[in-house]
Amino acid sequence: MPRPNRFRDMIRIGPVQVGSYYDGRGRDRHTAACTAPKCGFSADYRNRAAAELAARTHQCTA
To answer: What are the sequence ranges of the domains in the chain?
Structure first.
């Protein structure tokens, strides 16, 4: 059974949360996910700046 993600360095930019975690191979990854109802936006990035840029430019369609 895979271990759950352990997010760290969480920040919120509008409705989007950005967090960092280590993937299964020990690499540092960053996720941006919208918390608005019925939005469904989430994406993984290799660097923190890209995740924060996605959070700042995200437009909810719902």
So the answer is: 8-57
Contact 2, 24 (CB under 8 A): yes
CA–chain centroid gap for 2, Å, is 19
Q: How far apart, in whole angstroms, are the C-alpha atoms of residue 29 and residue 12?
A: 17
Q: Output the pTM of the full model.
A: 0.83
Q: Which tokens go with 1?
A: 């059974």
- What single-letter amino acid sits at 3? R
Which residue in this structure is represented by tokens 């700042």? 56
Question: 3-37 pLDDT, tens per residue?
Answer: 666 888 899 999 999 999 998 898 999 999 999 99
